Structure formats: C-alpha cells, structure tokens
Recover the amino acids of this structure.
C-alpha cells in the first residue's frame, strides 16, 4: 500500500469514526426529549446520576482526554467543569462528591447543552485534521463513544430508579397500541404453568477454551473492546449446561410463594444478612403489591406483572438463591461466553436479542419463540470481576476506567434492552456489586 | 350594634382577610421569580425542602384545613397531593418521606402553579360567602396565611443551603450599586477594633412580668398569634442586662483567633462532642476560607466577610461558647421579651429592624446607628421550647402545628432579614435544635 | 469562739467527714460482692459503664482533685490511670473512649481494689492533718463522696442493663421469702381495676416560691448540695395539681392496650419518630412478653409483671404520651419541688420512700398505703435541665461536673430505690436525655 | 481382609481419632492459661469473639452435630446453650446476636469448663462404641477437631485485637531471652536496605494443573480436608513468577515513605474510598507511632518495629496497593497452590514454616535463611472465594460450614504462626473480606 492509499484508508476510517461520534452524541440528546427540565436533576441514591450529569460528564470525557491534551489552543468553556463533572478519575484531580450530583441546579440544562455543542465543535475540529490524528487520539475517541453509550444505558437505569421514588409513577414513553396490548394483558395471580414449552439446556463440553475479545475485524470501530476483555487467553472448562431461557417472573413468583425469601438454606450468608436488615415484604426491585396483586414499575409506568416475561432487577443474592432453590447455580462468566459463542452466530444474535433500539425499555420478548441468548437482560454470573491473566490497564488517568474496580463485584454478561446494539459484543464484561438491583439484571441457570 | 351593622363589620373584616390572603399567596410566587426551573427541586438535607414543595404544601394547607372540610362540593385537583404534600400532620394521614421531597420531579412546576391557582379560586369562593364564614374558618385562613409566611422565610433559608452545595455559588439577586459597595468593601483580615462605638447594656429590673401575646387590637388580623405564645402569664425575672447590639463577625473572629473552637472550657458537652466528630476547620456555616481570607456565602453570592455585620448562621452551641468566652451568657426567652417590650415602641421597632421587605436577604444594618433590637437575625435564647403554663393546643390535626415539637429545641426570638414584617410580633417564638445553623441565627449577649 | 474551740470544731467536723468517706468507700465494694469477676467488665452500651470502671473512676476522682493537688509527695500508683479512668474532664486531659470501657480487662479486679486502697490510705493521710484541711479540700471530699454515691446508683442501673442482654437473666440478689411472695404473686393479664383506691391530687396555689437548696443546717455534711441546685431563687408558679401516687404498671398497661404506642396524637414529634425507627412491639424497657404474658426483668431476675407496682424504666417520651392519654401532663421541676416541700416533712419523707437501703433494687411499695412522694423512682419533669438564675459553676476542671450538661436533657426529681438516702435531698436535680430508659424512671402526673 | 481384621483397622483408626480429639480439646484449654478471668469475655468488634465463647462454641459443635443426633439418651447440660453458642447455623435455629457475645458474663468461666468436660465425657462414650461409629460420625468428629483448631487460631487473632484497645498493651507470653533479643533489637527509622539478600522468583510454567486436595493417605485423619478444597479439578495457568520471600516491614515502610497511602494510582477503588473515610495516619493494624518511631503491638507487647520481619495485619487493599507500587500483583490462589506444591516437599515444608507450635505468636523467621513458603503468615491472593467446579456442600446444617460464605471474600493461603501444623495442608483455603486486617495476613508478590 503506498502512502496515498494509506492516507485514504485513514481518512475513510476517521470519517467512519466522525459518523459514529455524531450519532452517539445525538443519541444522548434524543434520549432526553421526553424529559421535563424538572427530571434532569434527579438523583435518588449515590450510585445513580442525574440525566444532566450524564450529558455533561460524557462531554467532559472528550474534553479531558482529547481536547485538552490534543487540540491546540483549546480553551475550556468553564474551568470549574473539570472538577464538577469528573466522575472518579483521581489522576485528573479531585471530584465533586458523587452523592451531591443532584444538587447541581447550575449549570442549567441550557448551559449543559451549550457545553455539549461547544465540545462537539472542537472535537470535529480535532478529527478533521486527519493527518494529526494519532492512534491514541483515535482510540480515545472510540473509547469516548463507547463510554457515552454506557452512560446512555445508565441514563435509563438511573431515571427509572429516581422516578420509582415518586408515587405518581412517571411514564417515559407511552407504549404503542400493539406492544401495549401484549404487555398489559391481565394475568391471573395463580397463573398457569408458564413452563409449558420445553426449556432446553445447552451443553458445554469439558475442554480448554479461548476467552476474551476476538478481534477478527479490520475495522477500527468493530475492533474495539474495553481493556478488561483482554488479553484473549486459555481457560479450562468442566462439563456444564446452561439454560436456553431466562428465568421468568412466573417462575420467580413460584420461588416467592414457596417462601424463598424466608428460607435461609437458599441464601449466601451476606445476602441473608441483608434480607434480615430490611423490614417488610421482599421482592425484586420495582415490584409493587396492591390488593394482593403484583404490579411492576417500568418506564411505561406501573402495570400488572407479566408472568411470562423474564424476571429483572434482581440482585446477585436473589439470583443465586433462586438457582439453589432449583438445584442449579449461576454460570461462570467463562461458561457464559463459551455458551454465547457456541449457540449463536454473532450476526444473528445481534438481531435476535432485544436491545435499546427496540425502544421498549423493558424485557418484552416472547420467550417461547426467542430464547434471548443475548440482549434483553444482563445476566448475573458467579464470577468475581477480576483481571484476565496478563491484564494491563492503560497508562495515565484513563487507566482508571476499569482496573481499579476489580474487587468486590460480580460480572454480568449479555447486554440488556437498554444497551445499544452497536455497543455490545459477546466478550463484554459488565460488573456490579452483589446487592445491586437497579440495573436490568436477570438470570440464566447453569448446572 | 344591629344586625346590619354587624354584618357590615364582618364583611369588612373578611375583605381585609381576603386582601391578606391574596397578598401572601402572590408573594410566594414573586419570591420564585429569580429561580430557574432547575432550582425548584433542590433539597440538600432532610431538614430543608424544595421551593416547589413549599409552594405546594402551603396550598395543601388551605385545601386540607379549609376547602375539604368547609367548601361544599370541593373536588381536589389530584387526590394524591394529600399524601405527597402533607408535611407532618399524622392526623391527616401518612406522609411522603421528608428526605425524598427533592425527588418529586412530578408534578411539574407548571402543575404546581396550576394547583395553587385552583386552590386560590376555591378559597375565594369560600371567603366570598361572608355569612357562612364561621370563626373557625376565619381563624384558619389567618393561620394559613401566617403558615405560608413561615414557609416564605424557609424558602430563603432552604434555597441558600442548597445553593451553597454548588461550587458555582449561585446568586439569587444581584445587589444594587449602593448596597453592593457597602457590602463588598474589603476589610483587612486583622481588622481594627470594630467595637469603637460604645455598646450599651439594657437593664432589666427584678420583678414579676407578663409574658406572652398581648392582644390589644380589635382587628382580627393584628390580633393573631400562634397557640404557643399563649396564654399570657406571669413570670418572675431576676436582675439582668442584655446587650443593645448583636455580636458581629469581627467579634466572632476574635473568638476564633483565640482558639475558641479548640478550648473545651467554653463548650456545652453535646456541642463539644459534635465539634470533635467533624473533621476540618470550624466556622459559622457559609464561611469559606480561601488563601487565608474569609469569605461568606449569601444570596448575593460569595463575598469577603464583612466584619461589622452581625455574625449569623451559628448554632446554639457556637452562640453559647462565644458568650462564655465573653463571660456572658445567652438570655432566656423571657428576658428577651421583656427587653424587647421595654426598649422599643412596637411601631418604631417594626420600622427600624431589617425584615424581608428590605430585599437584601442578609444582615446589612449599620450597627452603630441601628442597634437592631428586632429583625435582622433570630437570636438564640437559653430557653427550651416548652409550653407556657396552661397551654392548650388546638383540637384535631391542626393542633399538631406547634405543640408536638415542644422537646429538644431552643427558642429563638426577634425575627430576621428574611421574616415578613407583617408576620412578626414580639411574642413570636421560633424554635430549632441546638446544632442547627441554616436559619438566620445570631446572638445577643446577656449577663 | 477562741482558737482552741474553733480547732476542736473543725476536728469534729473533719472526723465526721472521715467517717462519711470510709462508709461511702466501703459501700461501693460491698455492692460488688454478689458479682463474679466475669460481671465486673460488662458494658452493654456507651452510656453505661462497667462495675470495675465505677470502682476505679470514683477513686480517680479523689486522686485527681485531692491527692495530686493537695497531698505533698503523693505518687500515683499508675500514671496511666489518669487517662483511662477520667470520665469527661477535659480540663484534666484526654479520656479513654467511653464506648470502650468494657474492653479494659486490665488492670485486673485485684489491681483495681489495690488502687482503691492505695488512694484510701493516702486520703486518710491527707484528712488526718486537720489543720491543713482548707475549705476547698473539705468541700471536695464531700463532693467526692456524693460523686461516689451517684456512681453507686449507676452501678445498679448499668449492671441491670448489661445483664438484661443475657438470655440467662442473671440475679443480683435472691429476694427474701416475704418480699418474694409479694413480688411473685401471679396477676391476671386482664387485671382488675388497680385504681380502686382514691388517688389524691395535691394542689399548689399560685404564688411566688423559693426554689433551690435551702441550707438550714450548721453541719458541713448536711449543708451539701451540687452547684446546679443553687442559687436559691424566686419562681412564680401558676395553679396546678400533682398526683399523690406514681403511675402503676397496671395503668400503663391500659394505655398500651388502648393502642397508646400506635396513636401519634399522644406523642411528641421526636418521640414518635423514635418509635417508628424501632421494629417490633413497644413497651417499657425490661418488659418481656412470653406467651402473651408480660414479665419484667429486675435485679431479682425475670418475674411476672406486678400490676400494682409503679411503672419504671420509661423514657420521657413514654411518660409524656401516657400523661396526654390521661389528659394530664408532666409536672415542671419547680412544681415538683414545691409539691415535695409542701406535702412532706423532710424527715418523714426520708423514712417513707424506698431508697437503696431497702436493698430490694426495685420499686416494691404498696402504693395504697405509701404514696411514695420521694424515693422509689425518679420522676420525669417537663423542665429542661438549665442553669438557675445566677448559676455559677466551680472554677477549674471540677466545674465540668454539672454545668456543661445543661442542654438537651430533662430534669428528673425524687430519688429512686437505688439512690442512697444520705445522698438525697428535695432540691436534687437529676438529668437524662428524653429517650433514656435505663434509669429507674417513673411518672407522677400533673394537671 | 476378613471381618476381624477390618474391625481391628477401624478400632485403630478410631483410637487415633480419640487421641486427636483429646489433644485438640486440651490445647484449647492450655491456650487460655495465661489469661485472667477478666480477659475471657473481651469482644472488641463483632467479627471477633471472646475466648470464653470460643471454648463454648467448639464444645457446642460436638454436642450439636454428634451427641444430640448420635448418642442415645444424651441430655444437654443446659438447653439454652443451643441458642447462645450457635455461631451461624440457621439450620439449627436462631443465634444469640454476634455483636453481643462479649456481654455473656454468664455462664461463668467455671461453668464453661464444666460444659466442656461434660461434653468431652459424652464424646468419649460415643467414640468408645467402635462398632456404632458410622462414617458420618467419624467424619464429623474429625471435622469438629479441625473446627476447633480453626477457633484456636481465632483465639489468638481475637485476643490480640481486643488487647490492642487497651493502652496498657497486655502481654500474652513474655518472650524468652533469645527471641527477645532478636525481636527487640533497635532498628534505625531510616534503615539500611533490608533487601541485601537476593530475593528469588519461582517460575510457573503455563500448563493445565490439578488444583484441590489430593488425598494420597490411607489415614482418615490425614485424608481430611474441608469441602471447599474439593473436588480436585483441572485449571489452566499462564506463565507467572512468585516471589520466594514475603514482603517485609522494611519494604512496606519504604512504600509508606513514598506516600503510598496518599497516591490513588496504587489503590483499588473500594480501598481508596475506605482510606478516605478514615482520619489520621494510615499504617498496618498494630503499628503505633510514638515520637516518630514505629512500634508494633504483638502478643509479646509493644515493641520497636522489626524491619526484617514480614509485614503482617495488612488488608487485601494494602497488599494490592503495595504490589502495584512494585509493579507486581497478588498471585491467584491457583498460582499459589502450584507454587507451593512445586517448590516444597510437603514434609520439609511443614518443618520449615513457622506454625503455632513455635509458640512465638508473631512472625519471627529470619527471612534470608528461611523463605517461609508456608506458615508464618496467611497470604492474600487475588482470587475471590468461589466454589470449585462441581463443588457440593454437605447436606443439613453442617453444610453451612463453608459454602454460604462464597461471596465478597478473598482467599488467603499458606497458614500462619498461629495455625496448628496438624491443621494445615497446601490446599487449605482461608477467606476474609478485603478490608480485614486482624488476621495474621501478609503478602507474597507475583508478576
């Protein structure tokens, strides 16, 4: 390849990145359209962030890791934003206290949008200078886009949690007639056996497998993964089977009706202690009981619990307890990855699962016809979030992205109905603390 | 007086009440004008409430205690408001949890204003029917107006506390040129003796005094007081002197520079324990140290500390410690009331002090010329908030207004620069917990 | 009086003090006789102290305020004791953390007794030198004795609280046959009206009264009071009546059976909030329900609740709620003192009430015959613990004894069944926080 | 083998078990000999238990899992012990609250010893009936012995933690002259390079290894392991090296002097957050700074920090931060096990390390001559405590022994100077939470 050709390749590649950048940045703003200004600032617990903060912090990421170090003469719109929109990068400096993000009524929404557009313009200036775009710049732009896609997902999980505190149960988007009918159909409390269809188990043969991101694309965009998915490495798996289907609300209700929350023998010690510390009736987050009928809050409002949908917003403790009740267990993240690679052609899989693009913001698949191997819900695994053998974090503050969280958390796999398709890959490792319920987390059994 | 005359008297009286009602309701909305929609929902600690909630709760008060029981066919705008805008009236029913008020992004600001106007219209319907206005109705309307004036004051204390959490230090109202110059003049850190003017001490003779509200007006409006100011009763006072002036920032700084916060001998035991539990440098709330210069945050933004202004936003512990350092003590509320009655002609007094109508929202008096006996700052007393001998709370839920708080709190007297003139009277008993700092609280010495 | 006579008077006076000193010191040790070594170190909450610590701290008091400043060549047995047995005297120095007192297995019990005897010997050396005994020395010895008597009372309240944590319900002293029968008689849960005897109300006429300690004795010992009982001063009282009898367990149970703990209208706001934060059934501390029968734990073990005994170990919130339920209120401490002075001849009174010398350690009076005006139980008043007009604390660290606690607490009056007779006087002001239940606290109604 | 031979084999085997039982039971009591009665009840935090409780709970284990189900006509000494000495076995019933164990002054020490001997006698009755000893009985007796040996180790870790709260720094056992000199030798604060000897790194080849307990003994006693060490299974390891030596105090001090505790880049996120929440200077637990000299508290009292000894009582966060500072990492538990098996002949290894039998209760090895591969200190690994593939917990309450803790904890390997030699094996998996410091935990680097 001569120089000219090479330049042209880079140009095309950068053009694709610019397109990705534009699309991602626009999506964040489109997601906010149904919001009132009053909604942008909500923060119902320290772990969640206001919509406004998501909009600003993702912008801060581009400003901090691209514009300040790489765009000549770049002048920050407001120097105080470095402090107030830093999430957790100690290498950049101190951070405005996380639990107080909801108290930042200023800058206003209008000013935050102005901040976004100011940074967008500067980013396009930076990227337009093709020849100056080093690998580091290109990689960080792609990282910044995926970072923003992560926050697009958190936008939904956090908004849902905040709105749930409000007895008026706000609705993000009224469902269309078709989906509506399906979702709202009344289901009797004592339901018929939802397991009428045969649940299949997918077997994994004992062998040495390759785990981790497999870069078989020449595209920079498609060749992206987070550092925690690397290096690709060998892992020995013993014989195992994973269920083809996610556990449903109906199945989970049977666990509850069998006193699942009251029988210590199903629970990990820390999970049981957590249960004992909470007064009142236990259930998945967002389940609401009224007059002996279970309802579920979703971004479509409060609705009768649909027993055929997969159970979601359960903690790892709940997932594990349910599995024990069924004489099963959670899969490891390695089993899950082999299962996913084995049963699904990547392309089909991306089609089949329910991702953010479905715009339903709640698991709505018909399980019988669509086993939802990926998408729909993140699936708890029993694997602690740890570095792969030979893992190296990036140098500098950006290296704080993943590595420093590798303790006390569990890996979830599979993507969910609020994950962007273009952000997902099978090697994706999401991670949360075992008690966490506010993510779209569900359960696939293993044995 | 024949019937006709009597009716006319009532009509005039009710007209005055209607006028008061209109004016009070309008003031609450005017106060919000400088706010962005983003500001309405802020709640930085459980003890404070969002502006939006103040607007709605004061409306709820009229709806609950007047419209629902007394206006025939009144239909609530939204039945759920009974729950979400109830503050603490167990007699009415359960309450939405106080620490979560900031999470109510819905109803929107627009809806809250619509709620206000809906209730206003209904209230005017009720009051227009003069002949049907019983004493209970009239009394509760006046109570509702004073209740709303209390919340108008809390609007400022709560907003200030929330905004202070924001490193951008929002400004409620830019000060006019004149005030500005006065407030912003630089003062050297090691200041000259601000006590150049002679502070006078006002003596109280030992005697049996009358304490409590003295109704010497025939006007229903002027004859109002809260139940906790009654009954008027005898109280024996021993010899005492109260300072004519409030303690200034400059004087308080001398206490600090004399290691006042580090010397246990000045502190009440609970106050000392509280100090030890807090890391970092101690100072009145809203004092900010930057480069060895003290600044103070007010609703006019962050400004250099003015040493000649009275010190404010101190806890009762700080007030008490300062007093001990000066070999003085806090006055009792009884001494304070006698002092106020003795030294001030009520009319003059209302003119002289700095009330909300000054629209400065911060103590700005020139102490030398104006000793500020009332207004400017609430003044801590050493008196526990207790019932007067023979105290009777109103019956029903409205009786929860004052009586149930008569434990663990101290009385403050005098009104402040964010108290409405027309809401104030000398017998007014404000009450907060000893550690509280977010009210406009200052200190008058006694010995 | 010539010098010789004067000297003789002092000598006799000091001899009486030495006798008091010996007696008090011996009593502390006698109280511990029923304890196992295992019991000496128990501390079930920060507010309580281990028996061992009481023994050592009272010794520390004499060492710190008498031996170190006044006994020439006095050498402390162990210099570290100054730190570990200091309770709260900041003027002396830092203190070993109060919540950890139960962790001091060393010094051993044996070493603590050795410490006591070492200090006792030195104290007798000091006091034997009559001529060198200044007023300060004499006053501090008397204070030290009363200080130790306070701790003798706390010994019982603290031990009871610690033992109550043990499901084996240890017994301090088996009751004698006679008392035993009386206490253990079964009482039906649905009891007969225990109010069959007429409860009398004692009226107080409105007038100006003298409040505070009245020193009408020439004896140094009998002329003692704490600084908080002074100065004697005038206080105006309005018309009031106080019940001649304490509220009984049976009466309190009627309050409970009338849903007293579930009806917010009876409760102070802070008390109600405290109730809501506690799971489970509410009752006075030490009440234990087994098979729908109420038992009460006392230092005689767990026994069926005696409905005719006065209710004890209630918080001020419980006392106040009961009083409201009865359309009564708590008395003020001033009313109580006038009531006590008025109805009781001091001498008779000391005879009539049940004090520590009864060695029952639990209220056991027959209420019908003995109204128990003083003794039996401390009685909550509605009065905040505040300084009397003109109050002056002692100078130096010893001034921390009382004054610095004059905030957030309520006064209790009357002495209890674990208070020494010789320690008690009508002007005695005990003080605890409203939620506190572990003292022998009961209730006398006022109206 | 004919029946007679078979019986004889069993008899010999059971005799060995009886011998083990006697020895273990006696050891627990011998360990308590240096204690005063006052020391037996100390509990300085919920995670630790009083010595008395250890004595009783280990007895409870035999009573609960052997005598009650298997010894005919067994009558418990005190039925309440089932409740108060149950640790965490929900399958047995409710448990006396763990944080209150220090409040059980009764039963007395004497009664606890009587309980031990009562159960010992019954156990010997049970075991003497050889023919009735089923496999379940035999296995549970061996398990009970190892359970008690675990508590023998906890006896030391817990006692040390409790005594450390006492400023008198109690001594468990004065060291002999020889050891004493070595331990107490003064070391300059700015020390010479303690790494004068060459630290070797042991390499592990990438391969598929067998992990887990390897039962190659025909002896029942030696064939014992906990269920969490099974099943033996294959695990693929990548290339790695483990340091032959543990990190020393001197090395750790260099980390501290390089501001290790202040540089976020070395810390896991949760570890950094924990650091920020603690005021004051950070150091390993039991390090005490006096006059700019570091001391260390051990069961031999407070002594000058020995820089050549391995650093101990560090949390996993501290271990991990140190490793990053050295550009290394923690080993996985699999790497550790292969390392241990590879470098050490089991027999030699048991000789070489420092176990409880050394009776020094503190790491005292000369690192240069003895690399201390096992023994001396438990070594943090980066491996979450998880079930091995195919793990099965025992059925019934005894299955709560290990399995329910498999979440949120990390594995430590290697045994320590307070672990019994006969209790240790290379496959042993100890587990604690990352912040825990009160175990004898140290650090071996990997890279």
């Amino acid at each position: 390849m001569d120089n000219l050709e090479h330049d042209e390749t880079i140009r095309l590649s950068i053009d694709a990145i610019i397109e990705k950048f534009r699309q991602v940045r626009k999506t964040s703003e489109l997601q906010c359209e149904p919001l009132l200004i009053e909604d942008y600032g909500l923060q119902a617990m320290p772990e969640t962030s206001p919509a406004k903060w998501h909009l600003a912090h993702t912008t801060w990421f581009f400003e901090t890791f691209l514009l300040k170090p790489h765009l000549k003469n770049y002048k920050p719109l407001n120097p105080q934003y470095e402090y107030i929109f830093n999430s957790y990068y100690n290498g950049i400096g101190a951070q405005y206290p996380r639990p107080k993000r909801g108290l930042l009524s200023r800058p206003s929404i209008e000013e935050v949008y102005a901040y976004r557009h100011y940074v967008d313009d500067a980013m396009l200036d930076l990227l337009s200078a093709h020849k100056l775009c080093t690998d580091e710049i290109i990689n960080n732009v792609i990282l910044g886009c995926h970072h923003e896609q992560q926050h697009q997902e958190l936008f939904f999980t956090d908004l849902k949690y905040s709105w749930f505190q409000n007895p008026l149960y706000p609705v993000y988007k009224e469902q269309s007639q078709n989906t509506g009918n399906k979702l709202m159909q009344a289901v009797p409390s004592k339901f018929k056996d939802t397991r009428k269809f045969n649940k299949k188990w997918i077997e994994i043969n004992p062998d040495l497998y390759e785990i981790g991101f497999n870069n078989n694309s020449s595209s920079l965009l498609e060749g992206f993964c987070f550092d925690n998915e690397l290096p690709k490495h060998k892992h020995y798996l013993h014989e195992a089977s994973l269920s083809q289907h996610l556990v449903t609300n109906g199945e989970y209700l049977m666990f509850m009706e069998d006193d699942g929350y009251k029988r210590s023998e199903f629970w990990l010690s820390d999970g049981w202690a957590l249960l004992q510390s909470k007064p009142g009736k236990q259930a998945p987050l967002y389940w609401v009981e009224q007059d002996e009928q279970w309802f579920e809050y979703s971004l479509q409002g409060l609705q009768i619990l649909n027993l055929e949908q997969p159970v979601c917003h359960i903690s790892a403790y709940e997932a594990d307890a349910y599995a024990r009740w069924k004489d099963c267990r959670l899969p490891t993240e390695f089993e899950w990855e082999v299962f996913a690679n084995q049963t699904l052609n990547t392309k089909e899989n991306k089609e089949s699962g329910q991702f953010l693009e479905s715009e339903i913001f709640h698991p709505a698949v018909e399980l019988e016809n669509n086993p939802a191997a990926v998408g729909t819900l993140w699936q708890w695994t029993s694997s602690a979030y740890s570095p792969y053998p030979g893992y190296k974090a990036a140098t500098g503050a950006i290296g704080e992205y993943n590595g420093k969280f590798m303790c006390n958390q569990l890996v979830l796999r599979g993507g969910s109905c609020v994950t962007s398709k273009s952000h997902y890959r099978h090697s994706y490792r999401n991670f949360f603390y075992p008690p966490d319920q506010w993510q779209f987390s569900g359960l696939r059994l293993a044995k």
User: Anything to note?
Assistant: The CA atoms of residues 294 and 305 of chain D lie 6 Å apart.
